Amino acid sequence: MKREYPCVEIDLCKITHNAKTILSMCSKKGIEVVGVTKVFCAELSVVQAILKAGITHLGDSRVKNLMNMKDICCKKTLLRISMESEAEEVVKYSDISLNSELETIKVLAKAAKNINKVHNIILMVDVGDLREGVLVKDVIGTVKEILKLDNIKLVGLGTNVTCYGGVLPDKNNLGKLVKLKKDIKNMFGIEIPIISGGNSSSLYMVMNDTIPKEINQLRIGEGILLGRETAFGKPIPKCYDDAFILKGEIVEVKEKPTVPTGEIGRDAFGEKPYFKDIGIRKRAIAAVGRQDIKVDGLTPLDENISIFGASSDHLILDITDSSKVLQVGDIVEFKMDYGCVLAAMTSQYVKKYYVKELKVAKGNTKSINLA
Ligand SMILES: *Cc1c(COP(=O)(O)O)cnc(C)c1O
Description:
This protein is an alpha/beta fold. It has two domains: 11-226, Alanine racemase (TIM Barrel, Alpha-Beta Barrel); 244-355, Lyase, Ornithine Decarboxylase, Chain A, domain 1, CATH 2.40.37. Helix content is 26%, strand content 24%. The chain contains ten helices and 17 strands. Strands 2, 3, 4, 5, 6, 7, 8, 9 and 10 form a nine-stranded parallel β-sheet that branches. Strands 1, 11, 12, 13, 14, 15, 16 and 17 form an eight-stranded mixed β-sheet that branches. The chain starts with 6 loop residues before the first strand and ends in a 16-residue tail after the last strand. The protein binds pyridoxal-5'-phosphate. Pyridoxal-5'-phosphate binds at residues 36, 38, 61, 79, 98, 160, 199-200, 219-223, 230. GO terms for molecular function: alanine racemase activity; pyridoxal phosphate binding; RNA binding. InterPro entries: Ala_racemase (IPR000821), Ala_racemase_N (IPR001608), PLP-binding_barrel (IPR029066).
């Protein structure tokens, strides 16, 4: 079969394996794993790979993605705070949505009533990261109002950290959720079943056994896809970090100096570039660029290749020391970080190929044995 480039090759076995590993680690602590599908635009093959691991609850930030998954039978949570304008779709396509605005929750209540449904919500609490959530001091007041609404059921408290402010989850900030759960019970006599303690950055607390025992749900995207926790960027034991491989085709190979000739102005992105003079190098251009990927999120599988930089459509590589002699038409391969997977999966110019047999990438030292 003729391949198109650039492409991302997605190893579904590695994703299933990672999901299984994380699920087993979390289940031991009584934590439900919500498999987050937004990074790969909820592509159904990847969704199936995650469900195959035994995960039964999916989360996405976009209603459109949940809509695409409407025929998949599992629990679904809308992760991004709902827009009022999409309330009808939210109650139709999600079982649970994360919310922080009373007015929106009222609109959801009305939409749920119209279709005779009870919509579940998790109230997001801002414990310090300054992205979404009601401030801790306002939670009780908000809960009081939510409890007055018909067709809305408050099923959880949640938080999201390490996303905007870079605040790390710890016993102290997750402890605030635990305390609120107790306060709500004392004040209103109701039990809040779900305490959703964050994303892949909370996994380190599962790994080192410091996660408060009341936390019983985590929403995990990157951990499953790239096999690492995101508080410190450490690999999760026995997980793969190369389930997504970017492949680009070389369109030029030439020996050139490392410093441009002429006066240096701004590059195509308005930045003033800096060049270190390391003499004449053998350079390759791969036909993939910033429209498709995040350059600093790429790691060549061949450790002897380095990246000079990229413009919208050209990735410029130093292949002087490459393990294999590379020519025009050859393919170069890269591991990707979160931002890079996000960009590549979203780019219509990047072809996606799903691999069903386990492929251990060349030059990958971190690969593990499944047996
Ligand atoms: C994206 C997202 C997640 C998943 O984050 P990862 O770091 O990929 O695990 C969890 N919760 C919310 C609200 C999100 O938007």
